[in-house]
């Protein structure tokens, strides 16, 4: 998980650390209600109420002005909340603005707006489209014709409804994690700003300060030599950091690997410390603005206080562990979901819907609209029918239905065991719950090797699930489940005028490359894919010979059969190729070659062997036989 943690840290750093590392004196001197921000495109100097500060230079993209998010939060006193390392919520008085890294949708008080350019990370700085945000704050934005500067005028947030400082807890003089096993003095003048689901990444900052502190824990990484600890620390460096100091020292009886770095492009200094204890690695990082490394001196006491241990008898030690009785409570606010899962589970931050995983288990939630007249029982029956249609009998077993009681009421369960290679089997529990106008599908899968422990974990997890159905009813609109409601017999006709052919495809297949006037197309379904390629001014003999040669040159491929057939009334060739896919799962390609108007149309249907059912292959045959040449 070290790589995943590093990615999360860098995202967090871009959104929060940069905010905390802006010179606090700029904003300490600007607590008045009026705000005036001045900047020029391409200049790294931003002026806020007469005071200059250095930032990542604003720029224009497709007519949209992009500025560092930190400029907005500091100038207007907006509070910032980060979710999943990419969803940013800004609160300014009674306004909430939600932006997402990489998304062109901005929500202002839950009303979606589309911007031309999505927020993006540039050199570890979050750059956002400025106009949509500041106008939501009631500010104006324009140009000063004399100075050529962009000028933003508005007001700081009310102290009751905003303010860039993050709430703090100074109730203890020390802080630590009893589960992960570390402790240190409470970072002076800083507040706990963000903490990962499992507590392995903790971040302190203060918007009125110029410093930040990060503690990262990597469990079960294995025993590390000094050089290996250094390598792990260097994975957290930014691309523009220059090493000023690198040494091994001893603090509190522990061997410590230490780095001091400075950034090239901004006046920032960092100190990193790494301590290996047993098979665990602890990292402590300080970031602060300044030109001289002496700015790190006041933090040496804090750094020296860090210990890879936690004394439960110490009354001055505040426990911030996320793991209680071995469980982590995950909260997905966007979907109104709370669930408790054991330590060692992680949230998939790349997924749009809630997905959580461990090394041998998976849990996810999908919400869709309930159609008129539908019931949980009908839904269950359809799911069971599709399951049996999608898996060959030798890859599916123990299909059963049952009931379970969630905190919101009764739900139905479709249980089964499936495999893709007839070696590793998985237990699937599809929990189907209906409430109000929505359906909630909670899928819990685990390796059958877990046996009774897997089933026990499933039952215990379901007992902790809390679904905020009132929130969903209020915030969600129509969400169609195209896969569930798809009529698999329905067809759509695609036509290529350029290459003079047409083909009928199942309507439930999803198009990836859908321009049939080009020389290729590509569609996918849940377990397979169908692609077409046109080789211009070529022959079947030449194309097929070349592909067969390539196939035979790869020992992973086996040509199971080669035969002649007809497509659209024309002679064609068919290959059946067996191979192991990128996950080492047995799969089959059904390859067709047919010549028309001096070109060769190559068709390839790829499917996992577990899902190569009679229904799937009949659909393929129907597609091939539907081809007509114009």
Task: Write a short abstract of this structure.
The protein contains twelve helices and 45 strands. The chain has 630 residues and is of the alpha+beta class.
List the helices and strands and how they pair.
Elements: H1 2-21, H2 24-28, E1 34-39, E2 45-48, E3 51-54, E4 59-61, E5 64-68, H3 69-76, E6 79-83, E7 87-92, E8 95-100, E9 105-108, E10 111-114, E11 120-122, E12 125-129, H4 130-136, E13 140-144, E14 149-155, E15 174-177, E16 182-185, E17 191-195, E18 201-205, E19 211-218, H5 226-234, E20 241-251, E21 254-263, E22 268-277, E23 280-289, H6 300-305, E24 317-319, E25 323-324, E26 327-332, E27 337-342, E28 346-347, E29 355-357, E30 361-369, H7 376-390, E31 396-406, E32 409-419, E33 425-435, E34 438-447, H8 452-464, E35 466-467, H9 469-475, H10 482-485, E36 491-496, E37 501-506, E38 510-513, E39 520-524, E40 528-535, H11 540-552, E41 558-567, E42 570-580, E43 586-596, E44 599-608, H12 614-626, E45 628-629
Parallel strand pairs: 15-24
Antiparallel strand pairs: 1-2, 1-14, 2-3, 4-5, 5-12, 6-7, 7-8, 8-9, 9-10, 11-12, 13-14, 15-16, 17-18, 18-19, 19-23, 20-21, 21-22, 22-23, 25-26, 26-27, 27-35, 28-29, 29-30, 30-34, 31-32, 32-33, 33-34, 36-37, 37-45, 38-39, 39-40, 40-44, 41-42, 42-43, 43-44
Helix pairs in contact: 1-3
Name the descriptors.
7-stranded antiparallel β-sheet, 12 helices, alpha+beta
